[in-house]
Amino acid sequence: MRKRILLVSLLVSVVGLVLLSVLFTEMYYNGAISQAEGQLKIYMQVFAEEYDGSAEAEGETERISSLLGGARVTLFSPDGSVLADTQSDTSENHAEREEVSEALEHGEGFAVRASSTLGVNMIYYCKAFPEGGETQYLVRIALPVSSEVSVFTDAIPTLLWFVLIDILVCLLIAWMATSFILRPVERLTKAAATSGGKEVQTEYSELKPIAKMMNDMNAELNERVAKMKEDRRIEKLILGSMEHGIVIFRSAEDVILINKTAAHLLDYEQNEPIRSFTEDREIADILAANEPASVYRKIEGRDYNLRFTFKEKSSVLLITDVTESMAAARSKNDFIANVTHEMNTPLTSIRGFAELIAEGGIPPERTKSVAKTIIKQSDRLSNLIRSIINFSAIDSDELPDYEVDLTELVRETISSFEPKLSQKNIALKLDIASGVKVMSRRERLLEIFNNLVSNGIRYNKEGGTLTVTLTGGEHPALAVADTGVGIAEEDKERIFDRFYTVDKSHNGGGGGFGLGLAIVKKLCKRAGWKLSVQSELGVGTEFSIQFNPPKEAK
Predict the structure, then answer these.
(1) Per residue in 319-338, pLDDT tens?
(2) Which sequence ranges are marked TM in the entry (predicted)?
């Protein structure tokens, strides 16, 4: 801005000086012409006083010209013919010359032009001298004068000096004036830059609108910055609390944003490139392809899905823990395989015996035995289907809980197991507290108790002992202990899996399907009860359940 002001000031001053020079030249020229006209009139009076008409014209004009300092004197006849000329011998008729024609018409005339005979610029004054009412002769006196152009040309060297001085003076004045004018603006600008968001003030009324505009802009900017900071804080809070890992980057080495989860999983530190992006060939290829992709990685013993999405100038990596979902998928596949296997065993037995009967391959004396086997396998298949239905129905069970007398339920149910206890000569020990009540539903508790007691009998040894303990208090507890085969340490984590059995036979014998403990675990987890197991291989096993206080319902 300062340079522009200086340039404009300099241009204006130079143009003004040139225009003034032209104006002064014109004034000087006009003044010189006026002065020459006055001098010529005086010369004409001298001529009139000194001219002797009886003398020779040539001699008189020469004499008077010398009196006039050598001025050119020309004598004309009334028709414009030259009678005498002190500086030219021409006999050309001058009646058409401007000054001569004006003198013939008005008595006198002036003209300024370059002389066609002498080749110099002249000012001419011509006057008619009448006698008896008619013009006797005309006299023209001429003096050399400079032309307007030559006057200006002669002034150019001086003008150049004036221009140079004018430039220097104008530059100095313009610089001082510009500094004086801009100093308040610069102070205002500096105040705005260093105000730290505070209002700026100025004592100049002309600058107050600018100060107000700056204050308004500062206020708006501060508001936007505050909003951006708040948005950034909320964004970090949200991203920091997310279980998923989020990474936004321009390239493998240029990370824009990364939350704590992703930083932990990728062993990332701020201002460092994520090494796995550049060293992992598969991920590097994904970044190079710039196409959405998904890969799986095992990090710290857990399964994670790394999903890449790409925008115009950035890419987003979403890291999701899929350990449970993958385990659920594997469990579902195992469940389907186990169901197929468990159902196929009795079906194969039933079909085989049915085909033998149809083909007459069974002796009459064995028909009854085969029929009992078919009935037994049918019952087994029905029990399997019922167990599967019960297991699946737990998730959709939304019926309300109510208070159940667990003491009464245990006493009523345990008697139904007496035949099985007698078959294996198992002694039953009961330690049941009175009036123990829990919030649940009767069918749920029956399912749990029947499964625990059935397992206690099935995996007990001949002549063993089955102990059922029920305690009351703030946290009622039920325990079922046997003196059977026990559970190996490596099997304890899996005994609650669906279709898992300790004997691993799956041979369709008298064992269970491996759904009983899975149902027990699922019911306890849904109700919020604590299920635990203690076992020693070859000594026995104890399952215990700690219930919630009676007033709590799940």
Answers:
(1) 888 888 887 777 677 667 76
(2) 159-182
CB 277 within 8 A of CB 308: no
* pLDDT of 503 strictly over 50: yes
N-to-C CA span, the chain: 79
Mark 410-421 as b/e (b = at least 16 C-beta within 10 Å).
beeebeebeeeb
Residue 397 pLDDT > 70: no
> Does position 538 have pLDDT exceeding 80, yes or no?
yes
Domains parsed from the chain with CATH numbers: 2-150 (3.30.450.20), 242-321 (3.30.450.20), 326-382 (1.10.287.130), 399-546 (3.30.565.10)
d(CA 339, CA 341): 5
Quote the pTM value.
Answer: 0.43
Residue 26 identity (one-letter amino acid):
E
Residue 69, amino acid: G
Where do runs of H (alpha helix) occur along 252-363? 260-265, 275-279, 281-289, 323-359
DSSP 504: -
Nearest Cα to Cα of residue 109 among 142, 148, 82, 83: 142
Tens of pLDDT, residues 326-377: 877 776 776 677 667 667 777 887 888 788 787 777 787 787 887 888 887 7
d(CA 484, CA 513): 18
Q: Are 527 and 478 in contact (CB under 8 A)?
A: no
Tokens of residue 424, six digits: 């294996």
